[in-house]
Records
---
Amino acid sequence: MKNSQFKVLAAAAAMLAMTAVSPWLRAQDDTAAPAEAVADPAAEPAAEAVAAEEAAPAEESSTGEAAEMPVAPVAPVKPRPSETLALTAKGLMLDVTNTGKHLVAVGDRGAVIVSNNGSDWAQVQTPVRSPLTAVAFADEMNGWAVGHDAVILATKDGGKTWAMQNFAPELEKPFLDVVALDANNVLAFGAYGLLYKTTDGGTTWATAEAPEIRADELHFNGASKLNNGSVLAVGEQGMLGLSADGGATWTKLASPYDGSFYGALPLGETGALVYGLRGNVFKTADVAGGQWTQVQTDTVASFFGATLLADGGVALVGLAGAVLKLDAADNATKLRVKVRGTDALGRELDKDVTGSFSS
């Protein structure tokens, strides 16, 4: 990839912010609801019988106490495997990562697609149909994907096969990002202060004790491993959380902005760049020091994804097809992604992508 060029690897998608505040979205919702029953007058009991039944005292047990009616147990929701479909790669995709060997993207209905060149994509099956919102790899082989229904999936073969490590639809909270520190230590971040941690590669997951950043139950929209090994989490209301010990303890940082952040990138040894709502981007050479500088982007389009470029710059993508390149001196250049299409007369032409990018 030349220094002067880069590819935006994402599908046009609904805003990730919408995903963050919609934890009730389920992959299990394609079963049609039963039709409403039509009342049969002949089958209705007489009004007198209904009145007598309502007036009757409740049955009493041998001890004189009112007997409780037995409650049928609620059947647990079981995950269903994803469907392999020809057009999955053209559907809603929410995150993409480079494993060092392949590109792996995740999205709606448990979709995982992989590519060797960024142009040709193949779907691999997963054990769930819940929307997947983020993917991260510790190395070329070990990776994790997270999403709605508190889903956590893992792969040990570079994304060819995926196994379920967590599925908890009863929480009604989605995971929104995942950070793989190494093949054993992984952090999963989600809505309403959801934060899970594993130290054994996902054999066991537990809620991280982090009252400093979890007490307000704000959405963790994104997180990143910094170059010194620390983890920076970002979220609602300008929330910034820093952990220097792999997620064991956290510090809530003073924020330069009170709107939502959606992600972060490492800069230098101890610095970071954070981005979010209405084109707001800030950077610092020392995250713990708290001296943030605003980067002028000349746009109010929200940014949902970003990546570092080989020439020292940064590419940011977001709302309504927004693509912005920042060079090493923070000079901003707005770009457009075009696709080949046809007009009303069937003539071929290049069209701007106007759907939102999330990664």
Note: The chain has a mean pLDDT of 85.
---
Amino acid sequence: MFYQCGDGRRNPLLARTMTVPVFRFAPSSNGALHLGHAYSALLNASLAGAAGGRFLLRIEDIDTTRCTPELENQIYHDLAWLGLQWETPVRRQSQHMDECTQALARLIEAEIVYPSFMSRQDVRGYIAESEARGHAWPRDPDGAPLFPPVDRDRPPSDRRRRMEEGEPFAWRLDMNAATAHVAGPISWEESGDGPDGETGRITARPEIWGDVIIARKEMPTSYHLSVVVDDALQGITHVVRGRDLFHATAVHRLLQELL
């Protein structure tokens, strides 16, 4: 299944590439490729060839604790064994942190992200206490509980104090503020079938994910932010992905509009 990234009439960057479809295969170099990766790579290359478009390879290596040069080289070897060719140079996310930092700064300036200090243990305790009182806690499409409103509702003075004292924090998207920041409904064009048979023009519902992480405590970005920034800067017009990422498209479309 795949979707069209955006409307070139509204995005000057995409407007220059919309006449030439651009597809990408973007594995993480934190493990060996599996059959799903092989299928995705072959499908991207096939669709690009059929459309007279471009096929790009991108290495998503922001997880510096697990991604290694050895695993990256194995990706190149395996894709070559499949008979695939791609444009060079290959974009590696770890070499473009400045661009993600700039995007994060724009979101901070727009006051639609906030510093999040709660640990996983804090979150589990807060939710367990709430559920013990008989309140069912909302969950995202993956079944994970939505992030509690504790950090979002902290007074600005408390946030500043914690940051000045060097307490570790992540940046989370204030979903209510972010969706209010965008004028009108957000949608995308689905060219395959979603988990429940969705196809055609799909209305995005990013609010079902709650306040997602935009930048982690140990790095100035996250998967959501990096993939949106990279797709825009590379002029990607079509994204091929599995059904497991169908609902995440709503978050990416929101970030595309915000940035």
Note: The first strand starts at residue 2 and ends at 4.
---
Amino acid sequence: VDGFVYMSEQVGGELRAYTSAPAIFSPHPMFENFGERVERNEACSRLGLDADKRYLLFFGLIRDYKGLDLLLEAFEKIGDKELRLLVAGEFYNDKEQYRAALDRLGERVVLHEGFVKDEDVCNYFSVADALVLPYRTATQSGVTQIAYNFSVPMVVTRVGGLPEIVADGKVGFVCEPTVDGIANAIERLYDGDALARFGDNFPEERKRLS
């Protein structure tokens, strides 16, 4: 290969271990193919959700490295018992490993299990206060780019290329990939004007990913 385009600096570092061929960094672009935001009450109605509740979103294929178990344990520590965790995606590992935590959390977790069709993606991002990516490892994430498209604040862990994509304190929080780190970041989302401030910052941040 004569040249490369890489989407995270972590991948760039790995690439340089194999070749000195020319390479440039270009971040994973926004996913603009899922349409526009939907009015929140309408999106809740489409998904069968209670519009009086607030939702954090875990979205995408569920694999061990994506840390859903960490998020479930962190969510148990959240003081706001009216807050809901909406988990939307297809299990690619054994669902039973999450059973005990799901049982303890009960109605605080809303599980929409299975593949999410393209035309339904807008509904999930239109109801969510924020997206949480509690990954243990990562290069980059296409899910963050869906959140950018819908201007949804994020909590991501400090792994791989995620901190390159989500500027800490601008459109979300970057935290350590631990139960306490994730729980504290979620609590900070609802402390003061963080969500509104992040929303105001999206237009400028979206420019570099368009």
Note: The chain has a mean pLDDT of 94.
---
Amino acid sequence: LWSQYWTETTYVDEANFDIVNRNVPQNVFRIFYRRVLKDLNEAATLIEAEEGVEAEATKANRLHIIEVMNVYCYSRLVDIFGMVPYTDALDIENVYPSYDAGEDIYNDLFTRLDAAINGLNDGVGSFGSSDLYYNGHVDNWIKFANTLKIRMAITIADANDALAKAAVEEAVAGAFTSSGDDCLMPYLSSSPNYNPIHDNLVASGRDDYVPANTLVDKMNGLNDPRRDNYFTLHNGSYVGGEYGESSSFANYSHVAGPIQAADFPGIVLTYNELLFYLTEAAARGYNVGGTPESLYNDAITESILWWGGTQAEAEAYLAQASVAYSTATGNWKEKIATQSWIASYVNGFVGWTTFRRLDYPAFNMPPSPYDGISQVPTRFTFPINEQTLNGANYQQAAAAIGGDELTTPIFWDKY
């Protein structure tokens, strides 16, 4: 919703930036800490305690993979809230954890990620078939970790260009090289292990969402060949609901059928996402083995092919003056951000983060924004439970970031 790919039909709280009514920050905070990071921590503890079960190198690989996922999760938490418990996190004896500055967390995460990359050994195994992403193939995890490093580096590039440049150039040779490297969650066709999109759009029996005019209008204006992959037709046209308005389900296009399928894969990190980061890196002057234009073309082509389009469709799309790198509207940030945002349709967090980092493309303001705010939110406010149960540390964190507001920028979000 905040990437303005969809809007709501009846209950329009979130599309109007109200995440308090349904306690969204608390749900996100709890799931990351209690159901992901704490589980990863416990898994590492159990693996470290194993004796005589497997080769030490295989055991080490399992621990390094867990560490890579720890880095992924903590970077995501910083990108959502700005400051979060980190040094004091996951200690059941400390129920009042202090908050660490987002920049400090990122700096430590780069160190942790480098250690994991250097420690992974693709000559031995890891989790085997218990690894739902890569079936235990350590070479894939090495690529994933390097690609994650590039994502993190590009995220902070406006705040620390030197660190970002060094990290990208270190990681690019070991990152994804094709869509075959994509990290996807293989959902099943039956409950409870189907895609949450299917749960919300089909299994729920509800009609709560339609594609938003922000995206649909942009793609219509560019004659984008992916529209039939993203949306259904409404009376022969692609029609998006007015962002933030109560948009009758019957009057607009809907999310395309394949995306609603129970086993449509979850998107964790992809080659297409990487290509847009490399395009941006080249535009910033980093050495990534291509020019901004060549990488831009590769990224858009990869997205169209990933969605089932053809090479001819990609070439025709790129030939349009409104799309071609040399003639599309705006500076490099606007060109790259617009196309990255379009390509990230099923990964709303990436779309929203691209908008926050690069300030493009132009988003719509809803009719009744929460608390009267005058711009698209740049972060989640801290959870209510943190305000009431960890008050002193909450107050310190709120002051440190410049106020616990929806519009307070994350440390990397430079205007």
Note: Residues 19 and 25 are 7 Å apart (CA to CA).
